[in-house]
Amino acid sequence: MSSFTPVISATGLYTPKDSISNEELVASYNTYVARFNAEHAADIEAGVVDALQPSSAEFIEKASGIKARHVVSKAPILDPEIMCPRLPERANDELSILAEIGVAAARDALAKAGREAKDVDAVLCACSNLQRPYPAIAIEIQDALGIQGFGFDMNVACSSATFGIQTAADFIRAGNARSVLVVNPEICSGHVNWRDRDSHFIFGDVATAVLVEEKSMAPAGHWDILGTKLKTVFSNNIRNNFGFLNRTAPETRDGADKLFVQEGRKVFKEVVPMVAEMIGEQLERLSIPAEKLRRMWLHQANTGMNRLIATKVLGHEPTPDESPTVLDVYGNTSSAGSIIAFHQNSADIAAGEIGLICSFGAGYSAGTVFVRKAA
Fold it and tell me: Fewer CB within a 10 Å sphere, N or C end of the chain?
């Protein structure tokens, strides 16, 4: 029986320099709404076309808790004539944008762990929005970093990072690798319908990385992985149809069904109890009382969902210390959200204290990674 034990050695983060505030986003959106309603005034008057409703920063924050989001292409998103990222195509011999931000996050994680490329055996690119089917972004990141071994892409939407961590941990338990980089580059802005009042404010762009290693080689202050659990249940309540088989231009209203869509209330109603129950079952299996859970780094999708999930698990409404949020600054960054929360809110955890990294999203998919801070 294998005696190899996986741990988290370090995490890394890349944040795009540009950010869009709710106020900036609303000004752009409301300009678009006014132009649309004026252009279609006759049809609106005749009842043929529904008038679009303006938005407000207050509406966005109340609905989600989001105040801003980082993006890789700000000006075109805010241009009422475009309302879509514009990223120049790169030649095949240039590093792709997804690999570029993934490499930046990976280098941050490697530096924090004191690792070099020769120390890493594998790269997993685990994210929601891959920019091409092949060659794998993971292999491109692997090549850019100068890592030997292997790499592959995986997509489980917002749970991609936690699924990637368990996959990396399984490689280590089986003796197939000693050091695995799980990289989560998320350019969600390309899949958002910036003309949709109910969802245009949700997502942002970012990249994170998690270095999963065999315990005997891990640096001091690493995180023991106490247990992981994954769950999927098929649902169309969160869906994105855009891909290389259906190339409707995402900047047109006719292509709205090829972009991110969700039945938000159904998602809330169905996902919250599923995730809370999953966490509770895993706590019981690992013999961890809920009161011993020092911190929960939950998926950063919606403050209301996180509050209710944490309340169900802890038995009381969580404090910001028990369940920190990065939604206000980053927005929903899909698979990277819980990793950002962990990356930015874990330095104060003492040796022996236990925490939970948890994701949930489209699929439905959900993943838990229980960790304990080592000395």
Answer: N
Provide the b/e sequence for 108-119 (b: ≥16 CB within 10 Å): bbbebbebebee
Distance CA 205, CA 335 (A): 11
Q: 294 in helix, strand or coil?
A: strand
pLDDT in tens, 86-125: 999 999 999 999 999 999 999 999 999 999 999 999 999 9
Following CA atoms 326, 77, 205, 293 in sequence, which dihedral angle do they give, to the nearest 10 degrees?
20
The one-letter amino acid code at 192 reads V
Is 358 among the catalytic positions?
A: no
Residue 2, pLDDT score: 54
Below-50 pLDDT ranges, the chain: 1
Give CATH superfamily name and number for 224-373.
Thiolase/Chalcone synthase (3.40.47.10)
Q: What is the CA radius of gyration of the chain?
A: 21
Question: Catalytic residue among 84, 125, 127, 158, which?
Answer: 158
Q: Where are the domains of the chain?
A: 224-373
pLDDT at res. 1: 44
With H, G, I as helix, E, B as strand and everything else as coil, classify residue 112: helix
